[in-house]
Structure formats: structure tokens, C-alpha cells
Design goal:
It holds the Pfam family Acyl-CoA_dh_N. By secondary structure, the chain is α+β, with helices and mostly antiparallel strands. The protein contains 19 helices and twelve strands. The strands form three sheets. Strands 3, 4, 5, 6, 7, 10, 11 and 12 form an eight-stranded mixed beta sheet that branches. A hairpin with a 2-residue loop joins β1 and β2. The protein is globular and about 85 Å long.
Length: 606
């Protein structure tokens, strides 16, 4: 890919602005964990990621979409045939150390700040999300094991995943249960040797079968017979595709069988599978049943899996932001180069046509995309910084506060980019006009890829119930209080700055106060069904308030810059505060009324 085209993936200037001018990542390098790094090493890693994304991932993105994973059967065994450029791209990222960028040095990691790792991943999400998904799941799998596995499990399974030799999945859903994990039926029978034999069916498993590496490490939720009912009876098991021999190398095939593939509208390069465990397709140790190893405590599976799920949720938000961003850059490039029409009021039909970026409505659509994409990317990078604060802040109080704030923001960081990222991609198609919905241009694929993000790793409705039903009241509301304090501190700084910043601060203060008030009204209501009936509206309103704060922060960070980046930040902030934040008022009024429209609608009427 020509170097100029690389800046149609992400903006190097904006990523550096967000990391250095806004989040001051170099301050983290003063802490012991990151002491080997500096601004220079951070920038070098980002440049490496940008180059690999452009050279190894972007070139096969369209082929990866058009030539989907294929189910093939060899001697009665289901296999997956993938595009031949997927494995070399993943191998290049692994060999560059980017899979282990944020991991501990003891397992071969670089111990870079997590916020830098989030920025690194954004380049690959934008370049080819279908291929990068394999790496994202593998890293999340390794992080889960780091947090909940035994020393032996970590030593056995984590290094091969970070080296790109093993790949990882998460196996939660089942055909009959969907997102209702309390209703899963996969069971795990304890064995005399301390292992378990698993039997059941898992659905929607991304990366569930392929030959990209030597092995696949499945993280599987299952129930041990005799355990508690519901989610308290769920345990977590490591179930490899191949069992390891005495030398730690893949040996006997485990009883995990590919049943079929799910064909998605987007992320087509990421194989999505239906798997049977323990049906007897393979007989490890001479008998049926998938051999699994308990991870963490029995009955603690969902809590352990949430370590991976929460990382994946923020990863989904990062992917949604990156897809919105690359779609924006490509539509901006098109608008600058596509001549069509003349300015309103121009009378001479012989006058030359102007680039469509000269038309006010096109600039409106570009501003909206910029506000959504840059706001979403900034939000997920901020969450990455909170991970670093949670791990390395100087005091325990600061670490606890970062944890609570991150927990509160996670449903927003997953869902806000996933809602408004596709809207940005839709506008990118609109800017292209008739060319936008043709496969010759990238933007239609970006829209299809991004449309999956509101669903996987928990739908908007699930995230909304999590935010309103749990996160704003957890720990006595400490996380929500930390969010209020964070936003209020910025509002005070902006008010002191004067000018546009003070105007926006007043608008954000009014919206925040109203959000706090309505949150109190909702949680004072005794009927949980009524309280949560419009939780998705609450999620959208709270998300807009948070992203308005993100834009106010960026405005302050760009103060005094008289270049295109600074002027662009001011224009996008103005757009968000003039066009987007005012939407929150009617939403909060509706929530405060405890509207029952949805509850009172009989299913028979629909």
C-alpha cells in the first residue's frame, strides 16, 4: 500500500495527539512497570503497527470479505479453509511482539501501557478487522489465563498464544440459550485424574476451527453436575483442540468437532462456528468427551470469563471506532477529489464543477463522522488508560477509583461506538453517493463489518441493563460518583478557560446534572421492570454525555493549536455540542416519566 494510502486507515497525527497531548502517556513511563519505555519507544511501536497494518492486513481485506471461510470435510472430519494471506499477517504481528505488547515480561511481553496497546490494535481493526479478530481473541484469552489460571496453566498455554503458535476462543453461547447463560446445558464430568470431560454444543464461536497455528485454546463455560442452579453453577474450562504430549507439543486430537459455519453479513474473514463437544467424533485417551481443565474455582466461571468478556467488549468498541474512522477518512478523501455540481447560487452552468466537499451538506456529514469516530476512539483509549491506572496508580485509592470508573464506562465504551460507528459508516456511504453502495469502494464493507458490533459481546439491551441496573449502583454508586467527579473537574477547567469551552461546559453541566437527577428517579422506583424498560435510552443518553466530555477534553488539549488538527478538533467539538448533546434532553425527560409504552404493548399487537 502506498504510504499516502496508509493515512486512510487511521490518522497518525490524531493518535499521537490523543496519546501524548491529551492522555500524556509519557507520564506512565515514570512508573516501574513501564520504566523501559519512553515517548520514543511508544511512537516506534505505533509506527510499526501502522506499517504492518498497511502492508500485511489491509491488502487482503476485500478478498478476505469476498472469499469467506469454507467448510470442508476430510475423512469425515470438518475443517475450515481460510484465505491464504490470513496466517502470514497474524504471524507477522506476533513476530513483531505486538500480541504480547502489554503483557508481563515474564511471559515474553513488552510491558507497554495498555492504552498504547489499544491504539496498536486500532490500526489492525481499521485495516482488516476480519483477520485481526483472531489475534484479539487470543490476547484476551491469554489475559484471562494470566488473571485466573494456575502457574502451570499460564506457563503451558500463554507463551504459545503470544508467540502466535496457539490461538484462543471464548465459548459461551449455546443454540437454545443465546445470551441467557444461566440456561446453558454443557456439562463437565469430573475425572479421577483431575481433568473433566465436557459434553454439549456451543454456538457463535469466532475462530472456533481453523489451521492458522498449531492449536486452538477454547475457554468454555459449562456446569459441573450437582452444582448450584443458574449462573452460580457455571464453571470455566480450558479445552484445547489438541491435547499436549509429554514435551508440551500438540498431540492427540480432543473431542471438539466442527458442525457447521455461520455466514455473517460482516467480519466475513473471521470464521464463526457451531461446535460439538464430547459427541465422540474423537476419543482422547480412548473414550468420548472433550478433555477440559478447570480454570479458577468451581462455580466461579462466569466471574472469570467476564475478565475476557469485558476486555472483548472494549475491544469491540475499539473495532467499531476504528471502522468508523477509516470510513470517515476514505469518504473525506473522496469528497475532496470528486467534482460534482456548483455552489448554491452559482448561475453560470459553464463554470467548472467543484469538489463535493464544498457543499455544506457534505461537510455536515463529514463533521458528524469526525465527531463520532474521533470521539469513539478517544473514549476507548481513555478506557485503556484506566486499565493502566487500575494496575499501576501510586495509591490503592487511585487504583480502586480507576477500577470503579472503568467498570462504569465499559458498557458505554462497548455500545456507544457500536451504535454511532455504523452511523458514521452509513454517512460515509452517503458521501460517496451511488458509488458508496458498490463493492468497488471500501465503505460498504466497513458498514457491514461494523453492523455486527451492536450485537456481539452483548447487545445494546444487555449493556443498557448492565449500566442502569448494576454499574451505576455498584459499590453504593461509587463508580457513578467517580464518573460525575471526572466530568465535573473538566467542566470547571473549561469554564475557567472561557470562550467556546465555557459555553460547552455550561451545556455539559446541565446535561450531567439532569442525568444524575434522572438516575435517582429511576432507582427510586420500586418496580424493576418499569425501571429498566427504557434502559437503552438511558445508555444512549449517558453515552452522549460521556462523549461530550471527551470532546470538551480534546478541545482543552488542543487549545492554542493553530494547525489543521487543532482547527478540526474545534469544529468537531462545536458540531457535537450543537447537534448531538441537545438530543439528550428529550431522552432524559422520557426516562423521568417512566414511560410504559413498550411494557403496555401486547405482543399480539406487533
Amino acid at each position: 500500500m502506498p504510504r499516502g494510502d496508509r493515512d486512510l486507515i487511521l490518522s497518525r497525527h490524531d493518535v499521537r495527539f490523543l496519546l501524548h497531548d491529551w492522555l500524556h502517556v509519557d507520564e506512565l513511563t515514570k512508573r516501574e512497570r513501564f520504566a523501559e519505555h519512553s515517548r520514543e519507544t511508544v511512537d516506534a511501536v505505533l509506527e510499526l503497527a501502522a506499517d504492518l497494518a498497511a502492508e500485511q492486513f489491509a491488502p487482503h481485506n476485500k478478498r478476505n470479505d469476498a472469499e469467506e471461510p469454507e467448510f470442508v470435510s476430510t475423512d469425515g472430519v470438518g475443517r475450515v479453509r481460510l484465505h491464504e494471506e490470513v496466517a502470514p499477517a497474524l504471524r507477522a504481528a506476533a513476530e513483531a511482539g505486538l500480541l504480547s505488547a502489554t503483557m508481563d515480561a515474564e511471559v515474553g511481553g513488552l510491558q507497554l501501557p495498555h492504552v498504547v496497546g489499544t491504539a496498536v490494535q486500532a490500526w489492525f481493526h481499521a485495516a482488516n478487522i476480519g483477520t485481526w479478530a483472531y489475534a484479539m481473541l487470543t490476547v484476551a484469552n491469554a489475559n484471562l489465563l494470566q488473571a485466573h489460571g494456575t502457574p502451570e496453566q499460564i506457563a503451558t498455554w500463554v507463551p504459545p498464544m503470544l508467540e502466535g503458535r496457539f490461538h484462543g476462543t471464548m465459548c459461551l453461547s449455546e443454540p437454545q440459550a443465546g445470551s441467557s447463560l444461566a440456561d446453558i446445558t454443557t456439562r463437565a464430568e469430573p475425572q479421577p485424574d483431575g481433568t473433566y470431560r465436557l459434553r454439549g454444543t456451543k454456538m457463535w464461536i469466532s475462530g472456533g476451527e481453523h489451521e492458522l497455528g498449531e492449536n486452538i485454546v477454547h475457554m468454555v463455560l459449562a456446569k459441573i453436575p450437582g452444582g448450584a442452579a443458574g449462573v452460580k453453577g457455571i464453571s470455566l474450562f480450558l479445552v484445547p483442540k489438541y491435547l499436549l504430549d509429554a514435551d508440551g507439543k500438540p498431540g492427540e486430537r480432543n473431542d471438539v468437532a466442527l458442525v457447521g459455519l455461520n455466514h455473517k453479513m460482516g467480519y466475513r474473514g473471521t470464521v464463526n462456528t457451531l461446535l460439538n463437544l464430547g459427541e465422540g467424533a474423537h476419543t482422547p485417551g480412548g473414550g468420548p468427551g472433550a478433555v477440559g481443565y478447570l480454570v479458577g474455582a468451581a462455580g466461579g466461571g462466569l466471574a472469570a470469563m467476564f475478565h475476557m468478556m469485558n476486555e472483548a467488549r472494549i475491544g469491540v468498541g475499539a473495532g467499531a471506532a476504528a471502522l468508523a474512522y477509516t470510513g470517515y477518512l476514505k469518504s473525506l478523501d473522496y469528497a475532496r477529489s470528486r467534482p460534482q455540481g456548483r455552489p448554491a447560487g452559482a448561475k453560470d452552468p459553464a463554470a467548472p464543477m467543484v469538489p463535493i466537499v464544498r457543499h455544506a451538506d457534505v461537510r455536515r456529514m463529514l463533521l458528524a463522522q469526525k465527531a463520532y469516530a474521533e470521539g469513539a476512539l478517544a473514549l476507548v483509549l481513555y478506557c485503556g488508560l484506566l486499565v493502566d491506572e487500575e494496575r499501576t496508580a501510586p495509591t490503592e485509592a487511585e487504583r480502586i477509583r480507576a477500577h470503579l470508573l472503568l467498570e462504569t464506562l465499559t458498557p458505554i465504551a462497548k455500545s456507544w461506538p457500536s451504535q454511532w460507528g455504523p452511523e458514521a459508516n452509513s454517512l460515509a456511504i452517503q458521501v460517496h453517493g451511488g458509488y458508496g453502495y458498490t463493492r468497488e469502494y471500501d465503505v460498504e464493507q466497513h458498514y457491514r463489518d461494523n453492523r455486527l458490533n451492536p450485537i456481539h459481546e452483548g447487545t445494546h439491551g444487555i449493556q443498557a441493563a448492565d449500566l442502569l441496573g448494576r454499574k451505576v449502583v455498584m459499590a453504593g454508586g461509587a463508580g457513578f460518583t467517580a464518573l460525575q467527579e471526572t466530568l465535573s473537574a473538566t467542566i470547571s477547567r473549561a469554564a475557567e478557560a472561557g470562550g467556546d469551552a465555557a459555553e460547552y461546559a455550561a451545556a455539559l453541566r446541565a446535561a450531567l446534572d439532569r442525568l444524575v437527577e434522572v438516575t435517582g428517579v429511576l432507582h427510586a422506583h420500586p418496580d424493576a421492570e418499569e425501571r429498566l424498560a427504557n434502559a437503552s435510552v438511558y445508555l444512549e443518553a449517558a453515552g452522549h454525555v460521556v462523549v461530550a466530555w471527551v470532546w470538551l477534553e480534546q478541545l482543552l488539549a488542543a487549545a492554542g493549536r493553530d494547525d489543521d488538527l487543532g482547527r478540526g478538533k474545534r469544529a468537531a467539538a462545536r458540531y457535537f455540542f450543537r447537534f448531538e448533546l441537545p438530543k439528550v434532553g428529550p431522552q432524559l425527560d422520557l426516562l423521568a416519566s417512566l414511560d410504559r409504552t413498550s411494557l403496555d404493548t401486547d405482543p399480539a399487537w406487533l
